[in-house]
């Protein structure tokens, strides 16, 4: 019976077979550095089970997200051995790699009980792999998806009016950024005008980005990557010359500014809460791109702001792409999200792996915490998104889970080399200046970005950065 329980929970780990391995790490303490707040909840809640099954005492050290990079890197580089496991942002791998243990051998020994191949491709390739080796396990499967008002897109009057104006069927969902522009223009209406056959009680907008300085670069990259198809890159891999001011890059930024015409006033000051509330709570935006929260909280969608609204219905789709020479290119930006690794200076690496395998292997524990709102962790495995339990427990979640699988087949990585934060911060700065009208043209703004990127590359060393950049794609 005990063996069945262990198997059912997905708790097999290195060196344990059958009943012979009861509490194989009795007396060992594993210290885990984790994101403070709700990210720490699963660790605390599972500590007793880990103690009972493995004999390991879990010591959880919470670190605020703004301090994680500096505090963890300080401990790792000083070789203090203070942490056995670190949670960190996958974008930091270029700096953290020398102080981490590749997990390939652990995963091979553990075999199908961990099921590394169960990770969705975007996470497996761009969160966990680095330079052809496996360095981490994914905690939080952050994915960017397109959300839209399917109740509005399905309205027969709106569909007929759209076709009459633009000459093609209203796309449900929109597939390209050109279609998004047409749809945004079409659905932008004033209070008192009609929408979905009823009178608007407030102004309604076709599209909105999370456009506040600091993270607006994400919303630019959603365009930059497909606009740069068929071979998108941040840099020329041979020379490390920036491609961020190419004609395709300029067109992507111009698209971004064009859509500001159909966005709510003040959108340049919007962060997460403002976009979520405007779209989901106020119901006054037709289309937007965001993390998985809306997909998981689809039942919270407010009715359209009209006198006789239809039943709210949220559409979910991969982020838009482009058509070039008759070929459709679509990519999903894989956010640099939270992962966990074993520290090279840990004195108990096998025990640390047993903890990671317990928490994040293919099994009931991992599924429980991505389903739970207490953790803030999003799905990242096929076994998560295909879970009959989740689909039965939350009727209507199917569309989000199915779209997650679809989107992750075409993942594209965030930049993950030394200085990645600086590169993106400069991009963010000049995008913000252009969108605010402080820089006249998209070309001028991106030329400034390219010049700053070259300075960062020279400071870190062009040849060294070239080697790190190559690891991103291995």
Molecular structure report:
The chain is of the alpha+beta class and 474 residues long. It has two domains: 2-141 and 336-403, 3-Layer(aba) Sandwich (D-Maltodextrin-Binding Protein, domain 2), CATH 3.40.190.10; 145-211 and 263-334, no CATH class. It is built from 21 helices and 16 strands. The strands form six sheets. The chain has a five-stranded mixed beta sheet, sandwiched between helices. Helix 2 crosses helix 14, helix 10 crosses helix 11 (247-260) and helix 19 runs antiparallel to helix 20 (442-460). The two termini are 44 Å apart. Residues 1-20 have low confidence and may be disordered.
Biggest sheet details: 5 strands, mixed
Q: Would you tell me the structural class of the helices and strands?
A: alpha+beta
For the CA atoms, what is the radius of gyration?
A: 24 Å
Tell me the helix content: 40-55%
């Amino acid at each position: 019976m005990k063996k069945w329980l262990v198997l059912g929970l997905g708790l097999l780990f290195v060196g344990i077979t059958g009943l012979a391995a009861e509490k194989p790490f009795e007396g060992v303490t594993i210290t885990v550095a984790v994101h403070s707040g709700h990210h720490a909840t699963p660790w605390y809640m599972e500590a007793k089970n880990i103690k009972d099954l493995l004999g390991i005492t879990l010591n959880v050290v919470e670190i605020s997200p703004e301090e994680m990079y500096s505090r963890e890197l300080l401990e790792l580089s000083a070789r203090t051995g203070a942490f056995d496991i670190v949670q960190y942002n996958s974008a930091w791998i270029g700096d953290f790699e020398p102080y981490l243990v590749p997990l390939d051998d652990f995963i091979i020994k553990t075999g199908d009980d961990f099921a590394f191949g169960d990770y969705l491709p975007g996470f497996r390739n761009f969160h966990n792999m680095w330079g052809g080796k496996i360095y981490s396990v994914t905690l939080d499967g952050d994915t960017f998806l397109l959300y839209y008002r399917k109740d509005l897109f399905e309205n027969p009057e709106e569909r007929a009016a759209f076709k009459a104006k633009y000459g093609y069927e209203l796309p449900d969902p929109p597939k390209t950024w050109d279609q998004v522009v047409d749809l945004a223009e079409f659905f932008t209406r004033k209070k008192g005008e009609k929408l979905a056959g009823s009178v608007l009680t407030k102004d309604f907008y076709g599209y909105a980005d999370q456009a506040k300085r600091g993270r607006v670069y994400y919303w630019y990259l959603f365009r930059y990557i497909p606009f740069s198809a068929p071979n998108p890159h941040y840099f020329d891999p041979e020379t490390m010359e920036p491609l961020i001011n190419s004609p395709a890059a300029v067109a992507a930024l111009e698209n971004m500014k064009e859509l500001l015409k159909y966005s709510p006033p003040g959108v340049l000051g919007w962060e997460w809460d403002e976009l979520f509330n405007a779209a989901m709570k106020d119901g006054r935006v037709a289309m937007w791109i965001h993390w998985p929260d809306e997909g998981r909280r689809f039942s919270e969608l407010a009715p359209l702001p009209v006198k006789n609204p239809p039943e709210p219905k949220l559409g979910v789709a991969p982020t838009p792409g482009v058509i070039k020479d008759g070929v459709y290119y679509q990519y999903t930006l894989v956010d640099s999200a939270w992962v966990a690794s074993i520290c090279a200076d840990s004195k108990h690496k096998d025990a640390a792996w047993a903890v990671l395998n317990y928490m994040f292997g293919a099994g009931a524990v991992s599924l429980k915490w991505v389903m739970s709102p207490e953790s803030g962790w999003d799905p990242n495995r096929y076994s998560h998104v295909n879970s009959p339990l989740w689909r039965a427990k939350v009727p209507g979640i199917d569309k989000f889970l199915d779209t997650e699988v679809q989107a992750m087949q075409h993942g594209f990585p965030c930049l993950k080399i030394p200085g990645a934060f600086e590169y993106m911060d400069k991009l963010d700065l000049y995008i913000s200046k252009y969108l605010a009208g402080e820089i006249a043209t998209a070309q001028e703004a991106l030329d400034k970005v390219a010049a700053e990127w070259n300075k960062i590359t020279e400071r870190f060393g062009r040849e060294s950065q070239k080697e790190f950049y190559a690891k991103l794609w291995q």
